Structures are given as C-alpha cells and as structure tokens.
Amino acid sequence: MNLNGELPDDIGKFTELQSRDLSYNEGLSGSLNPQIGNLRKLTELYLVGCSFTGPIPDTIGNLKSLVFLSLNSNNFNGPIPASIGHLTNLYWLHLTGNKLTGSLPVSNGIKPGLDMLTKANHFHLGDNQLSGDIPPGLFNSNMTLIHLRLDRNSLIDNVPSNINNLINLQLMYLHNNELFGPIPNLTGMSHLNNIDLSNNSFDQSEIIPSWFSTLQELRTIKMHNTNLGGQLPAALFRIPQLQTVDLSDNRINGTLDISSNPSSQLQLVDLGNNRIVDFTQRDQYSASIGLNLAGNTICKESNGRETFCSPPRNNTASYSTPYSNNCEPPSCDSDLVSSPDCQCSLPYTGLIVFKAPIFSSEENSTKYMISLQDSLVAFFHKESLPVASVSLKNPKRNENDYLEIKFEIFPSGEQSFNPTEISRLGHSLTSSTFLPPEVFYFIYYFKPEPYNYTIFQEISATKHKSSNAGFIVGLAVGCCVLVVLLVLAGMYTFRRKETVKRAPEHSQPFALWDPTSGSGDVPRLNGARSFTFEELQKYTNNFSEINHIGRGGYGMVYKGSLPNGQLIAIKRAQTGSSQGGIEFKNEIELLSRVHHKNVVGLVGFCFDQGEQILVYEYIVNGTLKDSLSGRSGIRLDWTRRLKIALGAAKGLQYLHDHADPPIIHRDIKSDNILLDERLVAKVADFGLSKPLSDADTTHVTTKVKGTMGYVDPEYYLTQQLTEKSDTYSFGVVMLELITAKNPIEKGQYIVRGVKEAMNKSKELYDLHEVLDPTIGLSSQLKGLERFVDLALRCVEQLGYQRPAMSEVVKELESIMELLGLNHVESSSSTLASYEGATKDYNYPYSNDSIFSYSGGCSSPKLLPK
C-alpha cells in the first residue's frame, strides 16, 4: 500500500486486534515498536518485506495467542529473543532474510527458548548471521516440526545426534554453514523428502551414510561439497520418488551404478568433480536423466567425449502464458497491459519464488507452469477474489538456485484492482494459504511490485467524468431518441408476433427437445443455469485445441473460464449421439438437485443450435486414475489414499441415503473420481446413473451398463441394479488405491489377484508384491489389513453380503482414527475454535489440505504421509 514511516506508540492501543499484515511496504522502517507487545489477542503478525531495523523486541513474547509470526526479509539485527519461547501456540515462525546474530536460544529452567515451541511446524531461520553451535536442547521428541531451515548462517560444531527426534520432519536445510564433525545420522526421519547439507566441512569419510537408501520418501538430496566419500549404493537411485541428487564436489569414487530399476521420477544426478572411474549402462541412462560426471576420472580418461561429461546447463525452459486462441492482443495505453484473454487492464505484478521445486527437466517445465497457473486462478476464485486470469513468464533460477517466476494477476470486470482488493490479494499469498502443485513444494514467497494507485485513481476519475459528460450528452441525445422511438413503435408491432413465437425457446430452453429421439421426456431442472452456445464458444476460445482436456464416450471435454474468473469443465456431446442425449438428460436432472462437497458440481448446460453441452466446476488435479498411474505427477501416500477413499465413499453415501429420490451411480471407477486442489475426492460423471423411484425401492431392472472390471456380477446376471452394485464398484476402486493396478491387467482380475496373494497370518497380509511401491513404507501402513478386509467385503459375489455405503464410511473413519487422523468434518470445528465461528479461515496445510492435524487448532500436528 506504499506506506511510509515508523510504527508509533499508539500501535499498542489496538488491544482487540487479531490479525495484522503490513507486508511489502518498503517505506516502513525504524525499529519494531515494543508497544506491539500489548496486542495480546493477536494471532497473526505479518511484517514481510519491509525495512525494519534494530532488534526484535522482547515484548514479542507477550503475544501468547500468536499462531503465525512472519518477520522475514527485513533488516532486523541482534539475537533472536528468548521470549519467543513463550509463544506456545505458535505454528509458523519465519525470520529468514534478516541480520540476526548470536546463538539459538534454548530454555534452561529460568529463561525460555525455541525448544518450548512444541506445536510449531515451521522454523524458518535461514539467511541470517546466527553463530555458535546447534544446541542439542533445541530438539526434543515432543516437537512437531515439518520444516527446519537454518541455512546460510555461521553455525559451527557437530549436528546434534538428537536431531533424529524430529520424526515428522519433511524438509531440512542446513547448507552454507560451518558445521563439522560426522555427517549426521538421519535414519529415523522416515518422512524426510527434501534435504540440503551442502557447503559444510563434515569429517572426511570413505563410507556413504547408511541412511541414504533407507529414507524412502526422499525426493531431493543435496550434499554438494561436504567431504563425502566412498561408492554410491545402487539402492539410492531406487527410492521411488527420487527426482534430484546433487553430490558434486566430493570424493565419491568407484563405479556408478544406476542400472537396477531406478526411480521413474529421476531427473537430475549431479556428481561433478568427484573420483568416479566407471558408469554401468551408460548408454541407457545418461540420455534419459540429466547426468553430470564432469571432472571425474571417467571423463578425464575419455577426454570428455561422453555426453555426461558436460556440466549441466540451466534446466528451466522459457515460458510465457500464451494469448488465448482466436484472440488478438489489443493495443493498450502505455500504463495498461493486455491480459491472456486480450483485455487491457492494470495487473498486480511481482515475482513468485519457490525455494525447493522438485522438477528439473525442460520437458516438464512448461507442463508444470500451466498447472501452477490453473491452480492460482482456482485459488483466487475460491477466495472470492476478482481475478480474471493469471500470466506467468520468465521462469529462471537465481543465485541461490531458487525458481523465480514473474506473475501478472489481471482484474475481473474492471480495468484495475482497488486498494482493498490489492490488500486481500497480497495477504492471500503472504499468509501461504495458497497450496501450489506438489512439484513446486510448499516453500515459497512472493515479492510484489508496488501497485500504481495513480493509474487506479485516473481510471476511477475517468469513469466519474464520463458519467457527468454522459448526463449532458444524454440530455441532448434524448430528444433525438424520442423521435426514433416513435419510428420504432411502428416496427415493434410488426415484430411482436415473431418475438412471441420465439419466446418459449428462451423461457423454456428445452422447447425444441424431441422425446422421439430416444433420449426420453424433456429434462426436469432444479436451478441449473442455461448457457447459449455463443457464450460457451467465448469461454473456450471457440473450443480450441489448447483448451481440450479429455475425451469420453459422451464426447469432448474442454476447459473454460467464466467472466468472473471461475474455471469450468465443458463436456460437449458428439453430434447426433442418442447415447449422448440420454447421458445429457440424466446428468442435468440428477446433478441439478445434488449438492455435496464430494460430488462434482454442475454449473449449467447448453441446449442450443443442436448442441448438448454440460458445464461443471473445473477440478484442477484430474482423475484418481491419473494420480495412481503417475500421469498427474501427484504422489499419493497411504494417508492421502485413505482420505480419498473416505471422500468418495461419502459422496456415494450421499447419493444413496440423502438424495431425493436415491441415486445409483452405476459407473463408479477411478476415472470418475476427481481430485480438487486439496486432493478432496469428488464423484463425477452421472451419465449412466439411475434414480430409484422412492426410498423404499430396492432395485431398478435395466440393461447392464458400466465399465468392464467394475460391474457388479450379480447385476450382470440378473439385470437388477441396486445400491450394492455401487458398493461392488467402490470395492474395486479400493483395491486400485492400494495396488495402482487396472481392474483387469494382463488377463489378471484385480480382485482375484489380491485374494491369491494375501496371507492373513502375516503382517500386512503378505501383500508386499502387489502393493503400489509409492504408497509408503510397511511401518507406515497402519490399518491396511482392515482396509483390505473392507474392500473384499465390498466385492462379495452377492449383494446382501456387501456393506451399505454408510457402513463403508464408518469403517473408513474408524481406520483413520486408528492412525490418529481427524475426519474432514472435524476441520470446520477445529478452525472455528481458532478464529471464531464467524470467520472462515484456512490454515496453510489445513485439515482440508493434503496434510492433516490431530488435536485442536492450537496444537496442529502433522501426521505421517
């Protein structure tokens, strides 16, 4: 907001204040006024990217309700106040990018310390001037940290062995310090997926640490210039999700072996400047991954002729959001910018910086940029922010190897954002409530550029002047209009008859519906919006190829965007398809009266110019099948799969028990379960669905339809469709969730395959051979046996032997409780307890996100993935 000056003493009088965000006002300077300690009801304090100097006052420890504290990217100096240890409700501590000095404060029975923050999930203390050792007392088994950043400081001595107490840790950055002693043993950190220990002086060792191959969730490992020696085990490269390995500038020797079933995700292996003498299977793997062996013995002996002997180049492909098809960018005034949908407006601009992106190849860069762009638009729409589109461009790695992306956020409905809208946009990104696609990881910050309020005021003033001028001109023109109206009055009478003829087509969108076409009677609606064909052409850029996102038996699916910025999925029936007409009627009638968070929402339809089109909410992460097959790039661990199973089961239970009349889906499969931006499951595609005539009806006699491998065998034999038919299909989906196999694969039926492989007398029913390797370690699969038992009950041959979906939901909830997980429903009450029932507030990594917490909001706890 271009604020300037210092915080006055009067700041302490806002004693009822609960949230304060003054971020990105570079003119805010001076010291942080100690009076801020009087704001004892404050739960959020964001002062990011200002110009504050001096020490952080000890009075910060008075803010015992504080949950989020972000003072990063300022010029604070002096020590970290020990009084921060009094903030026992703190979840997020972000002090990165200052000039803080001294040691890390730890409690000693008299004074407090950071070790008392047992509910904190985030310690971001990097890029300061902290010194001394990492005190052993800092880490204890009660801590729930998931992110630990102490990088780019001047910390010395050994890494304490009890760092292994941080069993929930996912990201550890200790790079660019002066640490020495043995390389820390991280064997107990089974959830660790991103680690950087680079540029430290650990003791020289000719033995690769044993934990290298035991951390099965590792995605990125960086130990550049750490005195690492010995030969790399082939098992390192078999870690299922491993994508990036940087062990350059060490003393690694022997033969490099990546040949034994390496991770399919592997994109970059940088082993430059080591002592490797040979590489097995070099022709097969050197081209498929970004491998660098420059400066090794093997390259010196071959005079650098091998492809892997060239140092890696910048691996971020150029990208810029294209203009929409059939859209000519206009010539805008010098202060305005043409948006992707070719409107001149004043965007909100800046950089989004990702600190740990886990994709490396140019091939994937463009795909992930498009995914990020879609996620941002969906997020802004969900937050009810007036955003029409987002443009991303010029991705590049900075000197710290962070990924910087320039962004432009364009307003919807107006040429510019007003100050309130800018404040809300900025806070939504500063508070990290936006969850980017998983490959960007979750550590990001944004650096906005000052918004040009002068232009905003000029645009507003122009509108005001235009309004006054319009009144004067309107008065003069009014007389002319009166004459014209007299002429039009005569024409009106003539045209009235034609208008009356066409009126039913507008008031009744199905006036031209032909019941004899085989599609049944006219659809009966319950509030669905009617679109014209011209509108949908505009929203999809004339159904352009770039907006084409799928194909099914019904027809083509396109992505579109409404004028308010809402993303939509548009399913267009094939011309002349009677089957399309039946599905069209079914989905309109059913979905127009079905509203549940686990059922995909119908936005509207189009029955115009011979077209039959359905318009849905756009679900950004695609189908469950895409994620299980690896096509989406989303990793589904055991906890996430349980949540997805529970969400889909609740959607089905709603259809069976609460829809009026009850609905049998008839085509439940992993392709018809969609995952939104928080991986919440939504049941989709009701083209084959059948309503029961009333709650007392038990079945519908109908021709067998569905997808091979999912069809209820009893329905197949009797042609009697029941709710238990959906239960059977859902049981097959449950088996897909644990195996990631197709229902029928290489002639093997998934139900038979699981039954033949299982041995109930052994741990996990001895299903290791059929389990999807990306699901997690055996020790993390608590409740798997009960899950398998439930799935096999669902796929019993006879319907009466199967559980109702309400029973399935209860059992899945019980399994989640066994893991200590809350149900999705608990998130609303949990959040209410934090912010008060009147405020709809979402934590970053909240219960509705892909992470979970147990306990109240005052004690968020990350559970095993």
Describe the structure.
This protein has four domains: 1-203, Ribonuclease Inhibitor (Leucine-rich repeat, LRR (right-handed beta-alpha superhelix)); 215-312; 337-453, Multidrug efflux transporter AcrB pore domain (Alpha-Beta Plaits); 628-819, Transferase(Phosphotransferase) domain 1 (Transferase(Phosphotransferase), domain 1, Orthogonal Bundle), CATH 1.10.510. Mean pLDDT is 81; it is low at 498-507 and 824-865. It contains 15 helices and 44 strands. It has a twelve-stranded parallel sheet, with no helix packed on it. A nine-stranded parallel sheet has the order 1-3-5-7-9-11-13-15-17, with no helix packed on it. Helix 9 runs antiparallel to helix 11 and helix 11 packs antiparallel against helix 13.
- Low-confidence blocks of residues: 498-507, 824-865
Number of domains: 4
Structural class: alpha/beta
Compute the number of strand runs.
Answer: 44
How much of the polypeptide forms β-strand, as a percent range? Answer: 15-25%
**Approximately how much helix is present in the residues?**
10-25%
- Biggest sheet strand order reads 2-4-6-8-10-12-14-16-18-20-22-24
Q: How large is the radius of gyration?
A: 30 Å
Q: Report the principal-axis shape.
A: globular
CATH superfamily of the largest domain: Ribonuclease Inhibitor
Supply the CATH class of the largest domain: Alpha Beta
**Tally of separate helices:** 15
**What summary fits the major beta sheet?**
12 strands, parallel
CATH topology of the largest domain: Leucine-rich repeat, LRR (right-handed beta-alpha superhelix)
Q: What distance separates the N and C termini?
A: 39 Å
Nearest-integer average pLDDT? 81
CATH architecture of the largest domain: Alpha-Beta Horseshoe
